[in-house]
Amino acid sequence: MRELIDGAEAIARAALHAGCTFFSGYPITPATPILLHLIRELPKVGGTAIQSEDEIASMGFCIGAAMAGARVMTATSGPGLSLYSESVGLAIMGEVPMVIVDAQRMGPATGGATTVAQGDIQFLRWGTSGGYPVIVLAPADVAECYALTRRAFDLAERFRVPVFVATDKETVLGKATVDAASWDEVPVRQRPTAPAGGSFLPYRADPPDGVPLMSPLGGVHLVRFTTSTHDERGRLTRSPVEVDRLNRRLAAKVEDHADEIAMVRADLQSDADTLVVSYGITALAAREAIASARETGLAVSGLTVQSLWPVPEGELRAAMRGVDRVLVPELNLGQYRLEVERLAPDGVQVVGIHRVDGELITPDQIFDAIGAHESPEVA
Is 326 exposed, middle or buried (0-12, 13-18, 19+ CB in 10 A)? Predict the structure, then answer.
């Protein structure tokens, strides 16, 4: 069945189908429609949706609900994400499985509330103290909003981390006709929980990159939850051995599984001398530009990055093998281009195509850069 829907409804529907039972958010353009959809739909399936008094409360409600056994999601935009920051750190330290949707808009500060942008890319990775890794997925269209939201819930359960869905104003609010019956129904695993009998250590994880089993707060086990560095019992500690073990594990459980998390859409040609690396809304323009360039006889490869963090380094390196230039279109001043430059082989030119005027990058801009003999940075 084909229907006309927007990214907000696709995200909300994916959350419901992924088993989300709790949502809390504060109204903010352009994320508000996600809140409105779930306030209407979650109670129909026995779930709870709360419009909280502010963004800080939204995160607090979600963290508490997740630790009590719920599957949770929240949604905001850049200014709200700033207020989420401290609680994101708490979710990392407490190993809280949750999904956070960031519907990006122009910044800084309140910026352009109804203006498209991709300016939160580095902030999503580095926006809380300590520098510990997170997982960030980036859908490019309505269908991917559905699939990647489901994937986000699965990864949250797998690694006990906050997982971000980095979308944008155009994708969330823009409507598209899609065949919902053909959407990718990504499986979402059940939350592994500790057996009721026997002793339980809430942060016991044997491998260096291990993920502890959960037991809901208020259930059969004593569970301590703290914002501070702790031992396996959840007790505060200053033991160098225990502190080192915890901090290395919090990083390793994500970084050592980057290949498991990696998601890209590769469209490569063996004789291409130009590669276009894109993500999110700009990937749609990139795909059209690549198709047009090929019609004129140019050999061009494309790579759409769906998992921005951790960076899919193996896939990026493989795609850049044998090319002379890499074009990176994005609605910021070159945030993900930095990661591509870091991985590019010697002699490969990395060129940014950027807009920060509130307008989308067009296929013609990318097409012109593909065809240029010299590729100056496009402003």
Answer: buried
